[in-house]
Amino acid sequence: MPVAEDELSLVFAALADPTRRAILARLARGDATVNQLAEPFAMSQQAVSKHLKVLEHARLISRTRTAQSRPCVLETVRLDAAVDWVAEHRQIWADRHDRLEQHLAALRVEEKPR
How far apart are CA 56 and CA 78, in angstroms? Predict the structure, then answer.
C-alpha cells in the first residue's frame, strides 16, 4: 500500500497517535524542549524525539534555536487546513444525512396502511 505524502494525509496520520496529540496540546500552551515534552510520558526521550520527527514532517511543529536549546513550536497553519477540510466535509455529510432522513420518513409514510 503506498504511503500518502500529501499535506493533509501527513497531518491526519500525525494526529492519529494519542502521544502526538498530547504533545501538540502541550505545545498549544507554549514552546517546550524535548525534555519538557518527554516529562509526562512513560517513554524515553528518544521515543518522544521520534514522535517529534513525525510532527515536524507533517509541519505541525518546528524547532527554533535559543542558545544551546532547540525548543519545539506549534505551527497552526496545517491544523487550520485540517479543520477546514473537516468542516467542509461535515457539511456535505450533514446534507446527505438530512436527505436520507427525509427519504426514510417518506418511506415510513408510504408503508402506513391506508
Answer: 11
Tell me which amino acid residue 94 is. A
Smallest CA-to-CA distance from 32 within 41, 23, 40 is with 23
Number of residues that make up the chain: 114
Say what the pTM is. Answer: 0.75
Residue 30, CB-side half-sphere exposure with 13 Å CA sphere:
1
Q: Cα(5)–Cα(66) distance, rounded to whole angstroms?
A: 31
Residue scoring higher pLDDT (59 or 103):
59
What does the block give as the cell for 91?
A: 457539511
The β-bridge partners of 32 are: 72
DSSP for 4-61? P-SHHHHHHHHHTSHHHHHHHHHHHT--B-HHHHHTTSSS-HHHHHHHHHHHHHTTSE
| 3-state DSSP assignment of residue 105 | helix
Half-sphere exposure of 50 (CA within 13 A, CB side): 6
